[in-house]
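Severity: low
Component: inverse-folding endpoint
Summary: output formatting inconsistent between runs
Steps to reproduce: submit the following structure tokens with default settings.
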């Protein structure tokens, strides 16, 4: 992106209600499916939004801007024809339902309503000190935790949270006057003196409390804010973008849209990201040059303090004691001289994100994976609590290296390891953490298949496994490994070439130099960088020309993409591996059942431990579920929680009931065998839904209509003095009926409706 684009004029920036809709059906399929021209158009708009607002813009807030129509002329959402009656009304006090970042709400204040958009939130734990000092167990603790190693027994946990609302997001016409805002801040009933909201946020379940920001916002839009999301007055409706009114399709499409917006923000050369928050590089540079409070000098002081926080005290004879210190960024910033008045309103969010970016830059620039020259290891430990908790430990070389910017939650993990959790003080039965106990059929799961062997080339096929993604490796068949070892030695450099038709590969992914580990039996390639859209079960076809040092990997496109669960798949895959290794708790960052909610835990156990069918279905003895989850007979309370989760999953049809049998040796069978005792089973039967192309193409591989873009129906703002035709008014009423508005609505004043059509790219 050219540096000359650092400043946009409003006239240059696309408008969500302009001639070209900024959201497209391709974006609802995922970032990689979006043509470059559409990405660039949306990027220009989002860069302008981040530049115009006085705070870092979260990906959920960026989605709001393009989906609900944020104007850059000072009116924000005020010029959008959204109905205020569709906004959820919330009453904020000591306790309230949790609100995600991005929530657009009407806050009931007892007098004039306060319309606001939640721009930022963080944990506000009572045990965090005013100087940012944090008890170790708080760092990484789950919502509802009551103390070291005690996560709490409430299935609907509460967590103290600080929310930063933007009361000016809807323009002057819907904003309270300065005097009204001052009165609200003085009373400190709905917002505090800083213009923030501190509440005990109530979550419906532990699983909901663990969801990421974008997933939580998607849930909020599809439930509490559903009328707002499905309003026919948005620039382009989600229903039009997805092509369906089914909840599963809406959720999947919404999550892909949110991820597309996030990745477009990441792609900008003008923006910096802290987590899902985007800020301009220009604003960061101005802050670092500033010599006043919260400027560059203060940020450098903060970074130095975190680096030195764990410097141990000397004892006699030069011995030192290991020291671990946890520092919360938000409270530490408040303690800086002259900073208090600069941390009001949205400026607090800006200061916290700038501080975290500064700490991250210092760690990356001045340390070796977090290990500094003074022997201290510094790493981010919790990205949410207190604006971000950084862990300083000395001696740092006593700990293994890792990504210092990936929140590890070591504070909570350490106390949990020392204090086993008991769900009830009076519970007498033994309890344990969830365990995985795969069955014998996994021993032959996903074996490679020889396709062709000749004098010049060997071709074989195998499904990608979770272990390959985690370890960055690729196994080699034993005859090939042996030939390579004879010709090239035990650890030759092998060039790996990836061919992923219909997918997008970075330059560093398409061609890679890997190291082959070649023992006496089979070998493997190490140091492989797998593309982000590669998943467990993806079928790989490998080609090796005898005598060469090149292995080519090719994926095969499906005639029609399918949706399996929440994953849209466009290439051939192994359904058994997908069922086993794409279960909850499993991704390329790790594979663990620890921390999963009851429903996720049940789903993981059924998929991991159930009897597999060739179609990828998994069936598990319902009575044996608690034992399969915990590896021993669990507490009564735990069994009850699991059974409740099973009932919910059956009601939601994510699991299905079935009947099997058990033989005299205890082995279950399905279908039930005659003469054997019948047993109830729960089954995971992944739905396989075809993903239709908007223009009705049946085979993406044919290349037909490749130069044609489908444009969904959308609203467009008219020039002054222009009016929509009766045909367009009728088309909008029909559009409303498709969205579930049986009586139809009239076009908002000043807008017209553009019916769905196709155009050349």
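Observed output (run 2 of 3):
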């Amino acid at each position: 992106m050219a540096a000359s684009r650092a400043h946009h004029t409003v006239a240059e920036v696309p408008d969500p209600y302009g001639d070209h809709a900024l959201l497209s059906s391709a974006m609802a399929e995922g970032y990689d499916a979006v043509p470059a021209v559409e990405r660039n158009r949306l990027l220009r708009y989002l860069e302008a939004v981040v530049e115009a607002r006085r705070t870092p813009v979260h990906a959920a807030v960026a989605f709001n801007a393009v989906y609900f129509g944020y104007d850059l002329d000072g009116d924000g959402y005020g010029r959008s024809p959204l109905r205020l009656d569709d906004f959820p009304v919330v009453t904020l006090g000591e306790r309230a339902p949790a609100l995600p970042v991005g929530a657009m709400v009407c806050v009931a204040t007892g007098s004039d309503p306060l319309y606001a958009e939640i721009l930022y939130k963080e944990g506000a734990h009572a045990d965090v000190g005013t100087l940012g000092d944090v008890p170790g167990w708080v760092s990484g603790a789950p919502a509802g935790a009551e103390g070291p190693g005690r996560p709490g027994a409430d299935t609907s946990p509460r967590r103290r949270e600080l929310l930063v609302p933007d009361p000016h997001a809807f323009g002057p016409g819907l904003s309270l006057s300065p005097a009204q805002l001052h009165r609200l801040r003085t009373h400190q009933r709905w917002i505090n003196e800083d213009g923030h909201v501190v509440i005990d946020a109530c979550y419906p379940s532990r699983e909901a409390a663990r969801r990421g920001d974008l997933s939580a916002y998607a849930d909020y839009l599809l439930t509490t804010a559903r009328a707002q999301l499905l309003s026919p007055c948005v620039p382009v409706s989600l229903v039009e973008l997805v092509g369906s009114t089914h909840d599963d399709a809406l959720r999947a499409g919404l999550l892909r849209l949110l991820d597309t917006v996030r990745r477009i923000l990441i792609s900008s050369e003008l923006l910096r990201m802290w987590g899902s928050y985007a800020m301009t590089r220009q604003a960061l540079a101005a802050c670092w040059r500033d010599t006043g409070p919260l400027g560059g000098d203060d940020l450098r002081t903060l970074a130095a303090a975190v680096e030195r926080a764990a410097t141990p005290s000397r004892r006699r004879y030069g011995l030192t004691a290991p020291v671990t210190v946890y520092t919360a960024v938000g409270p530490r910033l408040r303690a800086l001289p002259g900073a208090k008045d600069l941390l009001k309103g949205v400026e607090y969010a800006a200061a916290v994100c700038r501080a975290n970016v500064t700490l991250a830059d210092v760690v990356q620039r001045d340390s070796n994976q977090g290990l500094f020259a003074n022997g201290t290891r510094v790493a981010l430990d919790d990205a949410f609590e207190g604006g971000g908790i950084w862990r300083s430990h000395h001696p740092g070389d006593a700990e293994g290296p890792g990504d210092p910017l990936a929140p590890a939650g070591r504070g909570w993990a350490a106390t949990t390891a020392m204090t086993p959790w008991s769900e009830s003080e009076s519970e007498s039965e033994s309890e344990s953490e969830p365990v995985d106990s795969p069955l014998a059929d996994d021993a032959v799961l996903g074996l490679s298949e020889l396709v062709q062997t000749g004098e010049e080339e060997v071709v074989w096929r195998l499904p990608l496994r979770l272990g390959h993604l985690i370890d960055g490796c690729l196994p080699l068949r034993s005859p090939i490994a042996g030939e390579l070892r004879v010709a090239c030695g035990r650890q030759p450099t092998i060039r790996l070439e990836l061919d992923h038709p219909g997918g997008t590969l970075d330059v560093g992914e398409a061609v890679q130099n890997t190291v082959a580990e070649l023992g006496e039996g089979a070998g493997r390639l190490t140091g492989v960088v797998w593309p982000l859209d590669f998943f467990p079960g993806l079928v790989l076809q490998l080609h090796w020309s005898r005598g060469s040092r090149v292995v080519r990997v090719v994926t095969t496109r499906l005639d029609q993409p399918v949706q399996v669960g929440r994953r849209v798949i466009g290439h051939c895959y192994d359904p058994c591996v997908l069922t086993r290794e794409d279960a909850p708790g499993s991704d390329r960052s790790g594979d663990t059942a620890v921390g999963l909610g009851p429903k996720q835990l049940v789903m993981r156990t059924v998929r991991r431990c159930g009897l597999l069918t060739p179609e990828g279905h998994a069936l598990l003895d319902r009575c044996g579920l608690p034992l399969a989850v915990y590896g021993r007979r669990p507490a009564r309370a735990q069994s009850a929680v699991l059974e409740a989760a099973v009932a919910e999953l059956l009601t939601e049809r994510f699991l299905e009931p079935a009947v099997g049998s058990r033989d005299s040796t205890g082995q279950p069978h399905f279908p039930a065998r005659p003469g054997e005792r019948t047993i109830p089973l729960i089954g995971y039967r992944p739905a396989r839904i075809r993903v239709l192309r908007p223009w009705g193409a049946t085979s993406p591989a044919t290349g037909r209509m490749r130069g044609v873009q489908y444009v969904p129906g959308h609203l467009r703002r008219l020039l002054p003095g222009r009016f929509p035709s009766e045909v367009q008014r009728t088309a909008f009423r029909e559009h409303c009926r498709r969205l579930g508005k049986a009586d139809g609505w009239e076009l908002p004043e000043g807008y017209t409706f553009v019916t769905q059509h196709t155009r050349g790219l």
